[in-house]
Amino acid sequence: MLSQEKNVVTIKAVVEKEDFKKEVSKMYDKLAKNAAIPGFRRGKAPRKVLDLRFGKEAILAEALEEMIPSLLGEITTDYDLNLIEDPDVKIDVIEEGKDVELTLVFEVEPEVSLADLSEILVVKPKINVTDDHVAEAIEDLRKRHASLETVDRPSASGDVVVADYSTVVVDDDGEEIVSHPAETHSFDLVEETLRPEIYQTLVGVSPEDERESQVVIDEDYKDEKLAGKTAKYKFTVKEVKERVLPDLDSSFFVQVFGEEGEAMDEETFRESISQRLGEHMEGEAQQAAEGDMVRKSVDASEVEVPVSMVNRQVENLKKRMEEQGAAGVDDSQLTSQAERDVKEFLVLEAYGKDLAVELTKEDLDEEFQRVADGYGIGVEAVKEAFLKNKDKINEIAHSLKVKKTISAMMEKVTVEEKELGQAQ
Question: Is 388 exposed, middle or buried (0-12, 13-18, 19+ CB in 10 A)?
Answer without folding.
Answer: exposed
